[in-house]
Amino acid sequence: xxxxxxxxxxxxxxxxxxxxxxxxxPQRVYLVEGSPGAGKTTLGLQFLLDGVAQxxxxxxxxxxETADELKAVAASHGWSIDAxxxxxxxxxxxxxxxxxxxVFHPSEVELGETTRKVMDQVDQIKxxxxxxxxxxxxxxxxxxPLRYRRQILALxxxxxxxxxxxxxxxxxxxQADQHLHSIAHGVISLEQIAKEFGKERRRVHIIKMRGLxxxxxxxxxxxxxxxITIYPRLVAxxxxxxxxxxxxxxxxxxxxxxxxxGLVRGTNTLMVGPSGxxxxxxxxxxxxxxxxxxxxxxxxxxxxxLGTYFARSSALGMDMRPYAxxxxxxxxxIDPAELSPGEFAQMLRNAVETSGVSFIIIDSLxxxxxxxxxxxxxxxxxxxxxxxxxxxxxxxILVLGQHGLIGEVKSDVDLSYLSDSTVLLRFFETNGRLxxxxxxxxxxxxxxxxxIHELQLTRDGIRIGNPLEGFEGVLSGLPTYRGIxxxxxxxxxxxx
Length: 496
Fold this sequence. Notes:
This protein has about 500 residues and is an alpha/beta fold. About 30% of the residues lie in helices and about 25% in strands. The strands form 4 sheets. Strands 12, 13, 14, 15, 16, 17, 18, 19, 20 and 21 form a 10-stranded mixed beta sheet that branches. Strands 3-2-4-5-1-6-7-8-9 form a 9-stranded mixed beta sheet, sandwiched between helices. A two-stranded antiparallel sheet has the order 10-11. A hairpin with a 2-residue loop joins β20 and β21.
């Protein structure tokens, strides 16, 4: 019997190869399990077609679908499977429950007609890669668990003796058949989770893989025209890059003074405040300054339409359209109901590693939270994401909306401890007018100002006034006035 080499064999899916640290060990039998519709057949076809591209022969054994159905699935992805050998066993006689079946021994002494046909095909074609679809039909033919297990053992030994790398597909119709996990060299589990609203979420989990060190946990994937795309779970510790922590201006001298000099490369800044306070406008001012310095930037907009964003920014003297048209700025409108967290993380990775983006805005985390199954997962996901961006030298701005306008204001989730700098914005009332206040409550990169200032949004951009030294309780929304600090309405020459 041939022995497996130390080389790896690709699965045909780049993300899955990444999770496995390079691919599968050749000449082994693997189990791919998942509910109907999870993408097992598509994965099997990608595995075989990758072998064809490498000059390896492939055999698809189908007990659950006809050859025509299989060709239709391939055609829907734009593939041709003419180079693959198809062996179809989906006929009435093979699935007759009343037909007598033999006991399957690992020694191959006594084999059923179905298994005998499979083995004859393998001996005739001599494939390097084999997909067996599916074990649920083999379970039906076996009629009892003992005979079924002996069938699988017989197939495993037969394929091993023929130096084949095999994917056994199973639709998990019988949850009691966990002994398959012990028989297979590795187990790949595909899951499809239906949500009450929005697109279903798909994720893959490597349950076991003998002799290979793989990245554990759940990894999101999509099944679309062109096949399966897997997004490996982001582990920030695996990515690091040397950079100089330069300080970039926000575009406002007053805001730079509040931040202690500006925005530092390789750090993230959290803009916190109620709806309408100016978080997006302030972030756009920082973004425009980075674009004027020649940096490439990406804006991930969850809450606002692109047309509304462009119009509002232009009205405030910050026209972003030319930068978007030139490609220096890429703006993505994100629908959290249609995007998985893993896919979003991969979008950011592609922007940084492929497009050379060095400035990123995520607006807002409230909508991003809706794509996550729970608050604790959002915090863990954001921790890895922000750590990765910081290690890549990216300047990141996060926008977090809060509930309430005046008085007590609450957040869906507290991410302030993850941020390097936190900018707090509040509405407050004085003399019958609604005003805005801004302060920096945290900065790990510089010694920031401890004062609270009035903020105005005008057609000329943002204006930040003098410290509100004569007020107490500004951040509560209902201040008392105990000094002589004038409001910005009487300060036409306030610093911008």
